[in-house]
């Protein structure tokens, strides 16, 4: 007898589930995508017990006939693609036909569905219910249900305890579920999305008229700039934060490719680099970027959870994104245009050409020589600013102490663009980034005070109440001691409301609600809500809020005080948001540049 056997279906489904269903949020993601594919205008997500107890997604989409409902839970059954060539231009979210059987193989699964009334308004048929217990045989029964589909997934991984162990805390799983709801809402403005936790609605996105309205409602009072542009076959619409709001991770930057939320390091980097020198490498702005491109130029079938895509020419997409955003951001925030060109991944395919700027309205003509499936029209080839071989300006933030200038001995000359401080030193010209410098000073002061358990606080005249999620309110209640050591008197005053009563005196410029929101986000994102690991991050967030920003006018006295304060800063004490604060051009270099030597 041979040793090879065919896997039974339920085992095959469980194996597939290993790739598709990582955690409760992946269940929600698949179900929401199905609802969108079914033309839903409303999607409701109900979650209990961090999604492990229950994830229920209800939609008002097309619904399914009894026959289709039975097929839907079978492996490799999909209504979305029929032949191999369809795979080249997928416009739907789903296409793999494995989500429902995979989910049903690792949970207690119930699907209830009824087709929408037909055109004439005649009810077509009764509803049907399909139940599956841990991948067992489906049981079908008639049921009364509104038009559309409701899928209930209970006790996720009840029959695969090993997988269950990999789940993180309830708060972490909840946070991932919220991200799924938010991504669905951001991906399509007209969709109404409701998220409820333990029977209570915690987030709600009502139908919006366009992406801008949707993004603004989702991001609350975060000031985001709208940047739009087109290059070749790529259309970009982005809503991005000011550089000072940047984070050390790209997690607050959401990217959509043809409406599909994707994780893509190269694209996130292109966005960050478009900010130019005001953003240090490794830091990312907050916001949302929508990329729209011919579906034939992007392969969405490269990741089991469809979280990654592959472009026919990823470098060109990155470059195009960078170019569109660099100009738009400079205009929006009054910053210098990013002069650095996009830092392409080093490996260059043989024969690949550079991609010069495309002029608006230019037709993307494939460049024969490039040998790439698509490319931008060659307008002024080679006219892009040359990448100078000159050494990049020296960034002194991490310089050894003896190399650091004595800031207080620099003579302040002028403020440039309300962003930089121009100073003269013995050995050359210094240009300081006023926000980065002020942030360093505030961070240093906060940290020193924190270590001595002595952050001075100031009571607010009127307590400020902030709406947060139930989880976050619980977090504030639990961590009140730790928060008060940070100089914050903040207390939960309702299931989803906290009140700020006092703030660190050093942060008199900051808005209490923003500090509290960011601080919670920072601690939650850094995982596990362990304050001890996150103190530096939290202090850096506070410092960022409490400091002079780009765009603030500084008097000569204020600039002078900042220079003096910088000399007190212990630059070795690492600041997680730290970025270069000063650059120097030596006299000899300057003389060389103007040809005196
Ligand atoms: N909410 C829904 N409304 C209508 N039809 C659905 C819904 N969810 C799933 N289906 C049907 O079930 C099929 C299988 O779903 P799924 O396993 O997620 O595979 P895929 O989405 O890749 O096609 C879908 O192709 C669709 O026809
Ligand atoms: Mg699907």
Summary, kept brief:
The chain has about 600 residues and is of the alpha+beta class. Helix content is about 30%, strand content about 20%. Adenosine-5'-diphosphate binds next to helix 2 and helix 4.
CATH class of the largest domain: Alpha Beta
State the helicity in percent bands: 25-40%
The strand order across the widest sheet is 5-4-3-6-2-1-7-8
What is the tally of beta strands? 22
Percent of residues in beta strands? 15-25%
What is the count of DSSP helices, taking H or I runs of 4+ residues?
16
- Superfamily at the CATH H level of the largest domain? Histidine kinase-like ATPase, C-terminal domain
Characterize the structure shown.
The chain is α+β, with helices and mostly antiparallel strands. The protein folds into three domains: 9-207, Heat Shock Protein 90; 212-346 and 354-370, 2-Layer Sandwich (Ribosomal Protein S5, domain 2); 401-584, MutL, C-terminal domain, regulatory subdomain (Ribosomal Protein S8, Chain: A, domain 1), CATH 3.30.1370. It contains 16 helices and 22 strands. The chain has helices spanning 9-20, 24-37, 66-72, 99-105, 161-165, 170-187, 211-219, 265-273, 314-333, 434-451, 470-478, 480-485, 512-525, 531-546, 556-566, 587-593; strands spanning 42-48, 54-59, 108-114, 127-133, 139-143, 148-154, 192-197, 200-205, 224-231, 234-241, 253-257, 260-262, 287-292, 298-299, 310-311, 411-416, 420-425, 428-433, 457-467, 489-494, 497-504, 582-586. The chain has an eight-stranded mixed beta sheet. Strands 9-10-13-11-12 form a five-stranded mixed beta sheet, with helices on both faces. It has a four-stranded antiparallel beta sheet with strand order 16-17-18-22. The longest helix has 20 residues, at 314-333. It is globular and about 85 Å long. It binds adenosine-5'-diphosphate and magnesium ion.
């Amino acid at each position: 007898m041979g040793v090879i056997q065919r896997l039974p279906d339920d085992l095959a489904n469980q194996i597939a589930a290993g790739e598709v269903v990582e955690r409760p949020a992946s269940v929600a993601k698949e179900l929401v995508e199905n609802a969108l594919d079914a033309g839903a205008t409303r999607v409701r997500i109900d979650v209990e017990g961090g999604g492990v107890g229950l994830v229920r997604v209800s939609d008002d989409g097309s619904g399914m006939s009894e026959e289709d409902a039975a097929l839907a839970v079978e492996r490799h059954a999909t209504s979305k693609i029929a032949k191999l060539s369809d795979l080249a231009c997928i416009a739907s979210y789903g296409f793999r036909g494995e989500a429902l059987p995979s989910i049903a193989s690792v949970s207690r699964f119930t699907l209830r569905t009824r087709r929408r009334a037909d055109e004439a308004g005649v009810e077509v048929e009764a509803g049907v219910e399909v139940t599956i217990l841990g991948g067992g045989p489906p049981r079908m029964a008639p049921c009364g249900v509104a038009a559309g589909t409701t899928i209930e997934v209970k006790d996720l991984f009840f029959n695969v305890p090993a997988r269950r162990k990999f789940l993180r805390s309830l708060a972490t799983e909840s946070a991932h579920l919220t991200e799924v709801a938010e991504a669905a809402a951001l991906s399509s403005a007209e969709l109404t999305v409701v998220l409820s936790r333990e029977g209570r609605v915690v987030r709600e996105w009502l139908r919006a008229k366009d992406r801008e309205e949707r993004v603004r409602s989702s991001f609350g009072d975060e000031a985001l700039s709208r940047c739009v542009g087109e290059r070749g076959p790529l259309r970009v619409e982005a809503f991005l934060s000011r550089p000072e709001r940047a984070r050390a991770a790209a997690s607050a930057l959401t990217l959509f490719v043809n409406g599909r939320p994707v994780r893509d390091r190269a694209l996130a980097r292109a966005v960050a680099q478009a900010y130019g020198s005001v953003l240090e490498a490794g830091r990312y702005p907050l916001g949302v970027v929508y990329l729209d491109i011919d579906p034939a130029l992007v392969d969405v079938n490269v990741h089991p959870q469809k979280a990654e895509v592959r472009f026919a020419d990823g470098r060109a997409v990155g470059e195009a994104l960078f170019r569109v955003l660099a100009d738009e951001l400079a205009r929006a925030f009054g910053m210098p245009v990013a002069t650095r060109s996009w830092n392409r991944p080093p490996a260059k395919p043989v024969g690949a050409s550079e991609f010069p700027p495309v002029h608006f309205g230019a037709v993307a003509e494939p460049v024969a020589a490039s040998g790439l499936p698509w490319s931008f029209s060659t307008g002024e080839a080679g006219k892009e600013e040359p990448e100078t071989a000159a050494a990049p300006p020296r960034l002194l933030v991490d310089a050894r102490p003896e190399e650091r200038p004595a800031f207080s001995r620099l003579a302040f000359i002028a403020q440039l663009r309300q962003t930089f401080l121009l100073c003269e030193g013995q050995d050359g010209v210094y240009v300081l980034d006023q926000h980065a410098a002020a942030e360093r000073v505030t961070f240093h002061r906060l940290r020193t005070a924190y270590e001595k358990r002595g952050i001075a606080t100031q009571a607010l005249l009127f307590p400020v109440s902030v709406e947060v999620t139930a989880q976050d309110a619980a977090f504030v209640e639990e961590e009140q001691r730790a928060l008060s050591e940070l100089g914050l008197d903040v207390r939960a005053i309702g299931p989803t409301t906290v009140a700020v009563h006092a703030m660190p005196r050093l942060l008199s410029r900051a808005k209490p609600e923003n500090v509290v929101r960011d601080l919670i986000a920072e601690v939650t994102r850094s995982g596990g809500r362990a304050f001890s690991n996150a103190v530096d991050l939290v202090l850096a967030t506070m410092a960022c809020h409490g400091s002079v920003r780009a765009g603030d006018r500084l008097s000569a006295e204020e600039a002078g005080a900042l220079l003096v304060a910088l000399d007190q800063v212990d630059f070795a004490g690492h600041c997680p948001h730290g970025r270069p604060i000063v650059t120097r051009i030596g006299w000899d270099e300057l003389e060389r540049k103007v040809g005196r030597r």
